[in-house]
Inverse folding.
């Protein structure tokens, strides 16, 4: 099955398709986890250095982070601390580590980890735990057939977007982008993340396509502060859709 068709099938089953960042300095372990996550329909980027990991998540966006603890330059616990201090939404963080002392587990959970898996990890358990923590923080359940945020009503069965009861004429890609933004409302989403999630990994499509489509749906949906909505361009990063107090 082609990636785009696979993603549509997973979404139809109510299973989220996640974009995951993995911090793991053991290349064999990293390859194994990436194969497991890919087999489950997710995408995963691997980083073997804590500092490289932090540098990347500053400019890109992910649905979940998977951290090893014992990393040479900046350990997983330090990375977790940085994430919780700098992210303005509760991005799911799962530790997968050989540190199995109760004090270590408690320390990580108290610092803000959502789950903790002691190595050796098992394939189905790893995938299930990552999926579960991602589902808990999602503003919209993937299994829902309707997305309702007044005055918008998005019918996922019939692929319709309505505003105050009036149908909005949108293209297929505009519709998919609208769904993706509303499902991730309040989050900063990188252009690469949007491009991958809506258009797939297509070398012939660039980030200007994202900008063009965002501009179109901002106009079509009248996403303006005076209407209580804001679709912001985040400098050198991407976009964020949020509800605000009307001006």
């Amino acid at each position: 099955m082609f990636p785009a068709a696979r993603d549509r099938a997973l979404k139809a089953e109510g299973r989220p398709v996640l974009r995951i960042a993995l911090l793991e300095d053991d290349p064999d372990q990293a390859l194994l986890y990436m194969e497991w996550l890919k087999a489950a329909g997710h995408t995963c980027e691997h980083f073997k250095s804590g500092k490289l990991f932090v540098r990347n998540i500053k400019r890109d966006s992910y649905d979940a982070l998977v951290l090893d603890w014992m990393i040479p330059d900046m350990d997983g616990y330090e990375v977790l601390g940085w994430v919780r201090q700098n992210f303005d939404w509760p991005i799911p963080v799962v530790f997968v580590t050989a540190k199995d002392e109760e004090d270590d587990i408690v320390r990580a959970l108290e610092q803000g980890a959502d789950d903790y898996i002691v190595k050796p990890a098992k394939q189905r358990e790893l995938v299930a735990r990552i999926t579960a923590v991602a589902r808990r923080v999602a503003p919209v359940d993937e299994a829902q057939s309707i997305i309702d945020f007044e005055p918008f009503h998005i019918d996922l069965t019939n692929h319709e977007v309505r505003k105050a009861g009036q149908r909005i004429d949108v293209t297929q890609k505009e519709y998919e982008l609208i769904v993706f933004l509303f499902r991730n409302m309040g989050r900063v989403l990188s252009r690469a993340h949007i491009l991958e999630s809506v258009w797939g990994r297509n070398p012939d499509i660039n980030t200007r396509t994202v900008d063009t489509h965002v501009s179109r749906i901002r106009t079509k949906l009248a996403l303006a502060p005076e209407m209580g909505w804001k679709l912001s361009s985040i400098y050198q990063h991407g976009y964020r859709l949020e509800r605000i107090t009307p001006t």
User: Anything to note?
Assistant: The radius of gyration is 19 Å.
